[in-house]
Amino acid sequence: MNIPVEPSQNPPLEHDHKKCVSEALDTAEQLCVVRGVQLTPIRHQVLELIWASHKAVKAYELLDRIKPQMDAAKPATIYRALDFLIEQGLIHRVESLNAFVGCNCSAHQHEQLLLICNNCQDVEERSAPKVMQALALEIKQADFIVHSKAIEIQGVCAKCTKTISDQS
Amino acid sequence: MNIPVEPSQNPPLEHDHKKCVSEALDTAEQLCVVRGVQLTPIRHQVLELIWASHKAVKAYELLDRIKPQMDAAKPATIYRALDFLIEQGLIHRVESLNAFVGCNCSAHQHEQLLLICNNCQDVEERSAPKVMQALALEIKQADFIVHSKAIEIQGVCAKCTKTISDQS
DNA sequence: ATGATGAGTGTTATAATATAACACTCACTT
DNA sequence: AAGTGAGTGTTATATTATAACACTCATCAT
Lengths: 168, 168
Description:
alpha+beta
């Protein structure tokens, strides 16, 4: 009666990704109901495709992936869905990659730090309260009014470092 | 014998922008000599164009602006110069705008926080040591190896806030 | 019921951003 | 004098994103 072991390619090592996805989609659905906005089939599908992994996905990759199910899909189809999902805080736009990744923090404060692995492409969200605190102070000192924040760190994640060093 | 008053459009309110530019270019020249790399005429010109303001400039804007002096300029001309300038830490790429801005911190630590004004488009660099410290700690806790950082805050700068409220 | 409205989508076209690939020059080396 | 590497010229093309306009359909006021 066990869920079969996943091929377990890249997504985080020991995590139940199905749960990950279903939780994200459930939360998204609930949030949209509460907010009185529509998570239409297209938007839902795009969100699901983004959550297929923890990697940042490009808009045109999404387009390719959605085409089998939606032959009519065009760039605007994707970009509109992405705009909606970003507005609702359901995904992050990864500015330094021109790509998109699922967001776990939609319900809470949406602004997080992104750790982007250049090896496996996984993006980890971290709320990093200390950083945000220091940042808020710095911004206040500059008399600056914030609209949005992008804090993106590129490098190599812990898993990849381990994997690489294990190979030697 | 005074320097004539500048039209003073947008660039920061009370600052001597000529000095700003000449210092930046001097520093760049010196750094390139020290490092044994070539700040060729094209690269110098692009750097100068970027320093024409404190706004983030798009690659194709640079292309348009360099054409009067360099009819042969093509996208590659600009992108190559930009690549060089970024490698040398002489400019920042502003990820959230796909644009470029002069960097004052080339000689020191290059990683800074960028405050991007959506009203006047000026970009302010801040070293924000407290933020960087907290960030370093957070990254260490995540066992992440950093290659590069982008910390970009969009909003309205102090000057614009003041100007706008003065109008009321 | 009727038609006005607005959100969402379909569709075509095009704008804006960025890179690949190959040829050429020129200074410097061997 | 040939070999090398950095920088540039040039053409073509890939990638990312938006504009503009038409259509559908549910909702709502008349």
